[in-house]
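Section 5.1 Outputs to date
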Amino acid sequence: MSRNTRRQFLKQAGLAGAGLAASSIFTVPGFSQAAGRTARASLGLVAPRKDFDRRVFGAFLEHLGRAVYTGVYEPGSKLSDKRGFRTDTLREVKELNVPIMRYPGGNFVSGYNWLDGVGPRKDRPTVLERAWNSLETNQFGTNDFMDWAKAVGTEPLLGFNLGTGTAEMAVAYVEYCNFARGTKWSDLRRAHGYEQPHNVKYWCLGNEMDGPWQIGRLKAREYGWKARDIAQQIRVIDPEIQLIACGSSGPGMPTYLEWDREVLEECYDMVDGLSLHVYYGNADSTGGKTERFLAMNIDMERQIQETAAVCDYVQGLKRSPKKLWLSFDEWNVWYRANSGDHTNGHGKFAPKLLEEVYNLEDALLVGGLLNTLIRRSDRVRVGCLAQIVNVIAPLMTSDKGILRQSTYYPYAMALKYATGRVLDLQMEGETYPVRAAGARGSFARDMDVPFVDAVATYDAAKKQVAVFALNRDLSNERELALSFDDITPSRVLACETITGSDLKAANTFEDPNKVVAQKLDAGTAGGKMTVKLPARSYTVIHLAV
């Protein structure tokens, strides 16, 4: 997670307004659309493809703004339980069934001492948190997060401080969480009331350590050495742990991919995954166009392919039998609340930071980004929507309750319906041109963008198929003709869509239902079936087979 300094850095590098991914560089001259055209999708089973890892639909909770305090933890509130947990947030996250949650950061982690957040609350220090210039009371820490994660039914993904932190403290953190008993740090956990170890399996080795905005920024080789040393020590404590090295902070970085290569050349054999981050925007000040904005999941797809290629290159150099997986542990739409007072807490406790208000347009792109993560789940094992509540989030809280933003709905669709393996899906359909405006960044290229973007999953145990379709056509309904090669749908279990006439419509506490999922008639199920996708829509078709 970055702050205003990141925005300034990109501006100096000639990437201002690039959605933090050099992605808003496209223009669409002479955009035209034709009504009544049909996109055709042929779907089949591919052996021996395995079920994808549902951790790809994870989320993120950082000590940033109101994410933790008043987001998930607010003791004394009528909306909280005796532990101080907001019951409305707890209920929403539990109902979403989020598989994994990254914590505690983000930029925050690079200046965080985990010892400040454990033990009796009366003894925990209040400190000035320097990544976001906010007061941190440490009243919510590691054990509190573990309790909350258990309550909502999610798996923890913890992060180390590789900024100001030492290897000794990082390794001690694992011993505190995962070692059973009989050592300094495991017995400290037991003294804090947690007899059994937390057994945290997934860990991030720092956060965005290539970023000039990051506390304790390191050069690639330096970071690779430090990550390797920490990983090697951790393997002694818990050989089964899964460690994620810091990849490049985004395609807009001048060291993009070069950073990844140099890091992995130092620590490839000691880590299991590599992280990717990206945020997308559509600011009017940079000539924002919806036609281009809704194509940005193609940029995400390219980023995944390029990063995987670097991993495989280093695998070849190392003659290693191990293939790294990818952790896309920060992704979202974010471009309005990303500078000035939106990113500076001015030394206050739980200030309003990064509180992006999402509209229909944003929700459609989030649907497209989810499609890409599903499609590339053969390589992406972990993914984290950044973040879960109040901070660039699908959920927002007030002193009266909780609000589902527009982006909640595509995320909820994926979590509810996408299970099993990803089907082999071959698409044919009309495209529209998106032109490159310059040579800034990795994705400065002309593109022919399909009006319809679709993916599908098949759950063999449940005998169910889910098809997810983004219709980028801003004016016209589009037909999606589905042809199933190896399985035959017998009935439609559900069909939901997100659409509307106003792309800028957003939900508020006063009017919470402007952008919501609504039922759609999917027609008759069968080996060949056609679904009419509304203009400007993201749709899921859930089928029994």
